[in-house]
Amino acid sequence: MRSQLNRRLLLGTGFFLSMGGTACAKTAPARNLSVFKTPTCPCCDGWIAHMRQAGFTTTVTVVSDLQPVRSSRGLPDALASCHTGLVGGYLVEGHVPAQDVIRLLAERPTAVGLAVPAMPLGSPGMETPQGHKDPYETLLVLRSGATRVFARHNQPA
What is residue 120's three-state secondary structure? Predict the structure, then answer.
């Protein structure tokens, strides 16, 4: 009788622990970020440092042309910037703030990913010594190629 009780306790504990591990895996999405950049862009390094400070583990691949990386994942050319990241099945184009990427990974929308087209001053990696900050938007890129505003930054009060 005692042996059956110990066995049930052991099985129950094992089940409980395995479920806890599953719950933890779902609440903390992986932060492994692959970045593709050209060899001549120093602002990309600033964005990579920003992402690392936010807890992302990054690998960097230097390429001469980013267009094949973007187009193979469905990003319209009009949304292009100076570097492309891949994280959690999503594409991250340009100087997207880490907080937006963290939100993307938590919400998991059906989308290609996020984009900050061009290189707005004051975005991560595009800081200026004078502290100038242009207003800009992070766009959610849908699979159709359409976009919608995901977040607004540096907006006037």
Answer: coil
Specify whether the CB–CB gap between 79 and 91 falls below 8 A.
Answer: no
Distances (CA, A) of 113 to 3, 6, 46, 153: 54, 50, 21, 18
CA atoms within 13 A on the CB side of 125: 25
Question: If we measure between CA atoms, which residue out of 78, 75, 70, 65 comes closest to residue 118?
Answer: 78
If phi > 0 it is left, if psi is from -120 to 50 it is alpha, else beta; for residue 108 that is: left
Residue 32 to residue 52: CA distance in whole angstroms: 10
Which tokens go with 53? Answer: 């400070």
DSSP conformational letter for 32: E
Tokens of 137: 């938007």
Could you tell me if 134 and 121 are in contact, meaning their C-beta atoms sit under 8 angstroms apart?
A: yes
Q: Rounded mean pLDDT of the chain? A: 86
Report, as an integer, the average pLDDT of 21-30.
Answer: 49
- pLDDT tens per residue, range 75-109: 999 999 999 999 999 999 999 999 999 999 999 99
